[in-house]
């Protein structure tokens, strides 16, 4: 009969033991010490007065059977061979196998590894069902995007009511994951959209004359919402759709003196804030007429703000520098980021964190997408995720409002959720610039002109430090 089993690692001295009858720990230590002092080979037998050890060695581990003197040795080595082949690298697997040896009359399962790795029938059905559901959602989402591009807008409500809610309810029932309100899920975003996708918006208008002031934002902040780098690159574009208006004249107002104008424009006119073309403007093209650039360097430490493209400088007290007469007395960049974050991790179990993410915008924001990398995260409980990221989507949020999100995951350190990437658009511009008049041959064309001001993120990163 088998009295017990021992598995010991000679490198780290870890021990796994199981005895047929209850014994004290001191007795198990006695068996182990006696065996280690008696074993002279990597495989063999050690006889004692009332019992014997049948043992073998594999990958730094001794596998030992303690048996009666009359126990069949060939059978003992066969059991040890099955034990080594079926261990699967998990001590729990070893215990299950050993228990079957000791308490089940030496029943050996040659395919024990296969049994451990098998999915239950219910798990397979669930995975198939969720996969089909995901494919169906992707198909319907593509249809909605296609319909919206053709002018259809009735399908979006159906998706919000039927598809997303049904998906959330299924996930809640089967996986008990926390949900996100469906207002956070934008259906007009591509399925594979990521915040770093560049130039994804191209502004258009149905008006015969379209003028767009657009600023692209590059920003890096830390957890304390301190700006490490913020850069704004702006431009004014003109798009004329009808030939009757290609000789128009635009008069600017506001802070345009330090902007760079297109070399195709007359410099004497641009010095006075007048934009016109002697040869006429091209049709059906977004023509860049002037550009500007500004930045806030968080590394300076003095709070100074710099405007480039003429380089006007504004001191930390908000007064214009005397070195440039065109410096703006109302500096268009501030030391506060467009969006502020509060990230609150709570370690609810060992290496398991509950994260609360709160946002407060300093601008009116639209199309907000916050993307958290999940390459270092495990066992994530979160509703809206793709292959690489956890995504929080908000259609619009007003300046000064707040919103929050919670999710749970396993990670080594809370900093594993960084860097977080952010994308948004926002109405208006930092720079105070506008149109005083649009005329052609004395005729006022403002009623036929669509003027738009907006900001868009080019790169916005939230870093841990």
UniProtKB/TrEMBL annotation:
Low complexity: bias regions: 320-331
Subcellular location: Cytoplasm; Cytoplasmic vesicle, COPI-coated vesicle membrane; Golgi apparatus membrane
Domain of life assignment: Eukaryota
Feature: compositional bias, Basic and acidic residues: 301-310
InterPro entries linked: AP2_Mu_C_sf (IPR036168), Coatomer_dsu (IPR027059), MHD (IPR028565)
Claim: Transferase is one of the keywords in the record: no
GO cellular component terms listed in the entry, alphabetical order: COPI vesicle coat; Golgi membrane
Gene Ontology annotations of biological process type: endoplasmic reticulum to Golgi vesicle-mediated transport; Golgi localization; protein transport; retrograde vesicle-mediated transport, Golgi to endoplasmic reticulum
Region of interest (Disordered), residue spans: 301-331
SUPFAM superfamilies (UniProt xref): Second domain of Mu2 adaptin subunit (ap50) of ap2 adaptor
Topology term for the membrane: Peripheral membrane protein
UniProt keyword list: Cytoplasm, Cytoplasmic vesicle, ER-Golgi transport, Golgi apparatus, Membrane, Protein transport, Transport
One Pfam family this sequence matches: Adap_comp_sub
Domain MHD: 206-465
Subunit structure, interactors included: Oligomeric complex that consists of at least the alpha, beta, beta', gamma, delta, epsilon and zeta subunits.
Function of the molecule: The coatomer is a cytosolic protein complex that binds to dilysine motifs and reversibly associates with Golgi non-clathrin-coated vesicles, which further mediate biosynthetic protein transport from the ER, via the Golgi up to the trans Golgi network. Coatomer complex is required for budding from Golgi membranes, and is essential for the retrograde Golgi-to-ER transport of dilysine-tagged proteins.
Annotated family: Belongs to the adaptor complexes medium subunit family. Delta-COP subfamily.
Protein name: Coatomer subunit delta
